[in-house]
Every structure is written in structure tokens, then in C-alpha cells.
Amino acid sequence: MSRTLRGLGLLTLLALMLNAGAAHAQTAAATTTKPAIPPRYDMSKEVTLNATVESVPSKSSAGLLHSGSSAGFVLQTSSGPVQGRLTPFVLNGKGAISISVGDHLQVTGVMMTVKNDRQVFVIRTIRVAGRTYAIRNERGFPLAHPGQNASATTESKGGQL
Amino acid sequence: MNRKSLWIFLLALGATYVSGCGSNHHLILVSISQAPPGILVPNATASITATVTGDSSNAGVTWSCTAATAGSACGSFNPMTTPSGTATMYTAPGTAVGSVTITATSVTNSAAFATANVNISTSGGLAGNYAFYVGGLDFNSLYSLAGSVTIAADGTLTGEQDYNDGSGITSPEPGGDMITSGSLSFDPTSGLGTLILITNNKNVGTNGTETLALNFANNNHALIIEADGSATSSGSFDLQTLPSTPAGGFSFVLSGVDSGGNTTFFGGVFNVAGTSVTSGIFDENSAAHSHPSLNNSFTGTLSAADSFGRGTFTQTGIANTIVYYIVGPEALRLIDVDSNSTSVGSAFGQGASAGTFTNAAIGNSVFSIQSNFAGNLYTAVGQIVPSAGSFSGVADVNEDLVVFADAQPISDGTFSVGINGYGSLTIPSGQLGDVSALGIYATDPTLNLNDPNNTASPGAGNTFASALVVDLDTNLIGSGVLVPQTDNATASFAGNYALGFQDFVDDGVLVSGELDFVGNATATATAPALLTGNGVMSDPFDLLLGASFSEPGTFTSPIMPDTTNLGRYEISPFSVSVQTVTTPIPYLAIVYQASGGQLFWMEDGADGQASVFGGQLQQQVLPLGADAKKAAAAKTGKP
Fold first, then answer.
1. Which residues contact B312 (CB under 8 A, 6 or more apart)?
2. pTM, two decimal places
3. Is B416 on the interface with A (CB under 8 A)?
4. Minimal Cα–Cα distance from B379 to chain A, Å?
5. Which of A62, B13, B180, B342 is most buried, most CB within 10 Å of its CB?
6. Is residue A35 within 8 angstroms of chain B, CB to CB?
7. Is pLDDT above 80 for B117?
């Protein structure tokens, strides 16, 4: 990994002389790293789906020991059913989003293959009942407060599936 | 025979002598064959059994008790008289009266008796100031909790704390919450217990009452989880040295989410001189930004600590206000108390090494890192052998839903440590999943980062530094520690351990939430090597179908040393049985040994579970609580 060195001061230079291997440690100005590994979530591959909710994970059907015993979050699209991947914060807690079977949604995300060769649609935004919720950021990381990341208008990127 | 048993034996022997003199022909001996625990909380019950020999009439014993404090209740027995070898049920008095002497007296000859002592206490006989901190998940968001309690000799508990989930539940600042009362109780034979904190903030815990499960490793330190159904989390509970004044070089790490809900970690170094924070440098890895931000300089202001050891860092640029709680002069717990973000962590002193660190500070080490629940979930644990800025090693990684890799060889790794302790460690890309770029922030070589009061390990003679760690990768954001590996002998992984783990569960489509476990176990190094123990599982999100939010868990698992990589073990299977779930949780686990006293473990991704856990095993110093104090007194000949 390469790191950019900027704004080296006298002490920094002294430190560099003492320990060239720790050069980055002595800089006074902020730097950023270049990604060593491509990001998992590739926003350029995002698509937006119009879908009807076919199945929603319910608490009563959950359970670590029983994972897979329920269909999970399944969306019916014009191209067939899609397994949607939500985030841990979407259906839990006070900031949870209300989603029910039969709801019409617009979801934006990326189709990805996860462990055990499962194909899931990793959802970044959900538009439901006239509000758009960002449940992940543009890097695909879950957002802890989906309810606080809601807007009344939707913003679509990518194409239609 | 421990000292308590020896004491009972000597008393019984004395009883034998007296009995023998009185009866001439019938030598009656009374002994306590099943002693009560050293400590009981008020109203608790315990079975006690006396054995009588030499009594031809087989009349058994009569039970009685006296409290050391004159006029205090001492408890009751049911039945009052029992045959030899039959237990009576002792019920402790309703208040913490302290020491109670229980006596079993021969019915046939009252000169023959045996006694046992029990301490009736709500704090296990422990007293003093203790700091605690946990990080985990409530029903809003990630949350952080840190505080301090003062436990008086009679078990009375008061304190203060700061709770913050950055999403609506935040202690009122600048003062935080008051802990108006509560209790600490635990089993001194295992260290497993309960800490109840009654606060003046009805928004935290259950209507203001937080219940935490903890397991002591020694009298100064316990692993702790919140286990009351309102939230779940893991952290540490440590004896405070108050007053203490932070000074000199420090390294720190914070884990949480920013105001947008993005997982965010900070790590770095700084100096404290009086009320000034100087020469600070921090790294930030936040999901809000495409790349980590490194080498950010900062300064700040430190306020004086109050009587609970609570003070503030301000004007750092990391958060508006970071509250600290002193554990000791070189150990602080940190919590961001800004209402729109949350993070929690620690700062550790650099001691005499401040300003003099070099690459030579890092010796053979074990590292352990983990995400928080808002990130891409993962855990990685491994061990490294450094050599002049490079290293080799072996490590395991479990990236939930994406990849896991067991016993991955690491070669051509590089690291650097600046004179101020700020450094980096790079695992060549692709050797350990997505784990590659780590920030490391070196600390005082004499400090035990997981048990800051532990002066025995690594101890004053240790020369290699520990370090706090922040994962500065693109796909993974987490934190952890790197500690010297001083003993990787298989025979050293034996004895009694306090242990805990934080388990993040997310199968991507159905199940998500957090489990936390704290407990104790006995490890045997000789065949069959087993890890056998029990504890408490916190599950407020009902991840274990049918389980209540908190309940006992047990396990008996084989320990399988990795003959290729000494110091690495597989606990396979690590099947945890939880009371109301018929099927044990089918974990597999990997352990790395820094020493016989300190090991790190993680969930092996090969178990197929949609979860990742990370945690520690810390060797216990027994007995705990008042028993330990009695043992210490016996050593010195003091009452």
C-alpha cells in the first residue's frame, strides 16, 4: 500500500532519519490510502427494480439455528423473484422501515453472489410509500439509522432490470 | 486442599479431640463434607452437608449459625437437624450482614462440631471503585456505555455513567446519568455474576435499570455483557486507581458510527501534559468515505476527573466531547457523548517507551480484530513473527457471507512503528481475505491491554509492546489489539478461564442481530483436551428461536492443537447449549494463544453459521471475592 507524504516538518524529517520504515507515522498532514482491494459493492453496476414484496422476514420465523427455514425478503419483479438483501437495521428497532407483503417498492442495488453461491440483490435504497430510505451508503456499508436517512423524493441510478 | 478446606479440616480435627476427651470410649468426628460458597447474596440458598463418624446412635447434626455482627440475623436451615451425609438447605439472611459462621453440632455429643464461614454480601466481598465499558447493539442502533461505580464494604453501590446510541438514547450531558443504587453479586468459585445498575435515566436499560452479566478473571477485572433485553454488548469491568492523573504518551482506539450511521473507527496517539492534549495523530476509517484518512493531527483539552474518575476530552476534532473514565494512570475508557454519533474505546499509556518506539518494539505477537455491527461483519485473529520490519505468520479470517480462510500462512508482511508509537502493519493483499492494511498504535510494554490492572502478565520485565489496532482497509473496518506472544506451549493452555465473545449475526436475508456471551471454563491440556464451561448468553433480538433474552449456556468441547502452527487451536465443535433451545448452537472456533493467561478466539467460518464472533479467554486467579481476601490474610497471619 502506498501512502502519500505531505507537509513534513523538521521533527518529521528527524524521525524519518531515525526510522525510515515508520515514515508515514510522522507526517503532520492527513493522507488517504489507495484501495488495496477493489470495493465489494460496485455502484456502477446498480440497477433499480420495481417490485412487489412477496415475503418479509418475520421475527417469529427467525433464529440462528433455523436460518434458511424461511424465504426471507423476496421481491417479485417483471423478471421473476429476486432474493433481496436488507441490512440488520432495516426491520429492527425504532428506526425500522415498515414493509409488508404486497407492498410495491422501488429498490436500487447490485446483484451479487455471496457465500454458498447464493444470488442476492444487495439493496442500497428502498422507496416505499412515497419515501426513499438509504439503507446502505454508496460503498455498500449498512447505515445504522435508515429511518433518519429518508427523503420524500426518490433518486434512481442505473437501469431497469 | 485449599485454605478454606484446610480451615474446616482443622476445626473438625479440633472437634474430634474435644469429643474424644469427653466421651472417652466414643470418638465422634464431625466434618463439613459439602461447604457453602464463600459468598452468598442475601436470601440466597445453599446446600450444606455434614458427615459424622464414630456416632453409634447415628443421630446426625443440628445446624446453627451466628453473624459476626452482634444482633444481626444469620439465616436459617431446613431441616434444622440432618442425618450424617444428608444436606440441609441454608437460606442466607435478607440483608448483607457480612461474615456468618455456620456450625454443625453432633446431636449425640455437643462437644463435637464443625464450622464453615460464609460471607453474606451483595458485592461478593469486593469493595472499591470500578470502571466499566461496553459496546454493542440496542434497539435503535449501535450503542456505547461507560461508567464507574463505587462499591462500599456493605455492598452499597453508587456511580455515574454515559450511555449513547447516537440515535435518540443519550445520557444528559455534561453530567451523564447517576447510578443511584444497584448490586454486584457473583459466585466466587466461578466468577460468574450479575451487576445491576439502577440509574436516574428511564430511557436506558429496563426503565432505567441495566442488568449486566459478568465473569471475573480476578478480583480486579471481569469480562462483562449487557443482558437485560434492552440491549446487548461486550466490554470490561476493572478496578479503578483513584485519583489518577493521565500524563505522557497515550495510544487510543474508538469504534462506533458517525452521524450518518456509517461505521467509523479512530485510532492514534497523543500526549497529555496537564490539561493539554498535544502531538495527537489519528487515523479514521469510516464507511462514509472511500478511503481511510490517515495522519490527521489533533490537539485538545483534558478536564480534571471527578471523584468517579470521569472527565472529558474536548476540541480534539474527533468528537465534540469524549468522556473518559480512569481505570488507572495508564488506562482510560473513552465514550463519544455527542448526541448524533456514538463510539466507545480505550486509551492506554505508553509509559517509559513514549518517544522511543522503534520497529524493535514489536516482537512475536497475536492480533485480534473485529468489525462492529454496522460494518461488513468479520473477525480475524492470527500470530506473527517479526524480523526487522517484515513478518511472517498465520491467521484466520471470517468475513460473514463473503469468505472465510483458516490457518492462512502470511509471508512478506511489513510493519513500521514511529518513535511516537504510531505505525502500520500490512498483510500482503489476498493472503487474509480482505484484511491487509492495519494501523497500529503501540503502548507501554508492561501493560496488559485486556486487564490493565494485571501487573503479573506481561509484567515489568516485558520489553515488547502491545498495540491497539484499527483496520484501515477498503472493505473492512474494525479494531482490536496486538499483544506479545510470550508462551505458545500447548501445556500452558490449561486451568480456569473467564471467557466471552461478541457474535454478530447476519445471514443477509433473514436473521440479523447480536449475541453476547460471558462465562468461564476449565481447559485441560492433557488428553482428552477439553474446554468445559458455562455462562450467560444475551439475545435480545431473538436470534435463538425460543430463547429468552438472556439465559444460561453450557459447552464441553474438544481442544485440538494445531501441530503445524504452535499456539493455534481449533475448538471443534464448540457447541453451546442454551437452556430453552433444543439444538446446541453448532459453532466451530479458532483460538490463538498469546500466553497461557491470555488467548483470543473467533468463530471459524467453516461452521457455516451466518455469524462471526470474536473474544477472549483470560486465565482466572482463584479464589475470588472475599475468599481471596481471606487467603491473603492467612498468608500474612492477619485476621
1. B174, B302, B303, B321, B322, B323, B324
2. 0.82
3. yes
4. 16
5. B342
6. yes
7. yes
Among B212, B215, B221, which residue's Cα sits nearest to residue B239? Answer: B221
Contact A89 B141 (CB under 8 A): yes
**Which ranges of chain A does DSSP label H, i.e. alpha helix?**
10-18
Q: Which three cell numbers stand for residue B398?
A: 471470517
Nearest Cα residue in chain A from B475 = A39
Domain extents for chain B? 3-120
Say how many CB pairs under 8 Å bridge A and B: 224
Q: Extract the runs of DSSP E, i.e. beta strands, from B187-320.
A: 192-199, 209-218, 221-227, 231-239, 248-257, 263-273, 276-286, 293-302, 310-314
Give the pLDDT band of residue B428 (cuts 50, 70, 90). very high
Residue among A21, A65, A149 whose CB faces B545 most closely: A65
Question: What is the C-alpha separation between B277 and B247, in angstroms, rounded?
Answer: 9
The whole-number pLDDT of residue B13 equals 43
Neighbours of B317 (CB within 10 A): 13
C-beta separation of A67 from B610 below 8 A = yes
Please say whether the beta carbons of B134 and B122 come within 8 A.
no
Which of A57, A139, A145 lies closest to B141 in CB terms?
A145
10 Å CB burial of residue B27 (0-12, 13-18, 19+) is: middle
| B294/A21 touch (CB, cutoff 8 Å), yes or no | no
> Domains in chain A, start-ordered, CATH in brackets?
1-37 (no CATH), 43-160 (2.40.50)
Alpha-carbon gap: A15 to the closest alpha carbon of chain B (Å): 7
Name the minimum distance, in Å, from the CA of A154 to any CA of chain B: 18
Which CATH topology does B3-120 take? Immunoglobulin-like (2.60.40)
**Model confidence at B636: pLDDT above 80:** no
